[in-house]
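Hey,
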Amino acid sequence: MPPTTRAPTPTTPAEQIEPKLPSRGGKTRDLTKEDFSQQSAIYLRPKAQFDTLVALPDSADRK
C-alpha cells in the first residue's frame, strides 16, 4: 500500500487564520490585528518578529 500524503498541519496562528479570511474577486484581504485577537493570539509586525530581530547585525540600532 503506498504511503498517504497529507497536507501539513498549520502551526502558526497566521496559517490557521488565512484560509478562513473572506475574499472578493479572487483576492483575500490582508490579516489584521483583530483576526489574531479573535484567536487569542498576538499580532506582531514583521519587523518585531523573532526571526527578524535575531537576524539583525550587532551594529544595528535595536531601539
